[in-house]
Design brief:
Structural class: alpha/beta
Largest sheet: 4 strands, parallel
Number of domains: 2
Bound molecules: zinc ion
Distance between the termini: 33 Å
Helix content: 40-55%
Strand content: 15-25%
Number of helices: 7
Radius of gyration: 17 Å
Shape: globular
Length: 159
């Protein structure tokens, strides 16, 4: 049920955005094309790429592949939101860690009191932690900027 995506080295920022929207996205800029295809085959993953040659190799191996178009990050995410039918809304209980693709788990203030700055602890009520890398997330100013970015992605007029 949980579809896996493998993203090429040119789409690092896109990989992070897709994880934030809850997709299971594997990305490693050190992978060669061969290695990437091998991983995708093993997991029956969908390949997302900007590289036409890689896209046609993936397709010839029977992999499902999406050639990502768009010159800017906004255009690329607009394209993917449409193509993959994504809800452009950030819900941390569904998000994956943008850094490592781990699952996020909601934790109490007490659990993270030693991990986040005091000001943040005072202002925020909800926290999530990545079960893989331990990074802590909350809905701060960074989150508001992310929301604005996603709004631009769904608004056709914006770039
Ligand atoms: Zn993580």
């Amino acid at each position: 049920m949980d579809e896996v995506f493998v993203v090429d080295a040119m789409l690092g920022r896109t990989a992070r955005w897709l994880r934030i929207l809850g997709l299971n996205v594997l990305y490693d800029p050190s992978w060669s094309d061969d290695r990437l295809l091998e991983v995708a085959l093993r997991l029956n993953a969908t390949v997302l790429t900007r590289d036409r040659e890689l896209a046609s190799r993936a397709a010839s191996m029977g992999l499902s592949v999406l050639e990502v178009s768009g010159k800017s990050e906004t255009e690329r995410m607009r394209f993917l939101i449409k193509k993959l039918g994504l809800r452009p809304v950030i819900d941390p209980s569904r998000s994956r860690c943008p850094v490592c693709n781990g699952s996020l788990r909601e934790v109490s203030k007490e659990d993270v009191s030693h991990l986040v700055p005091e000001g943040v602890l005072r202002r925020q009520e909800r926290f999530w932690i990545c079960v893989e890398c331990g990074k802590v997330y909350w809905l701060g100013s960074h989150f508001r900027n992310m929301k604005k970015f996603l709004e631009r992605c769904v608004n056709e007029a914006g770039t």
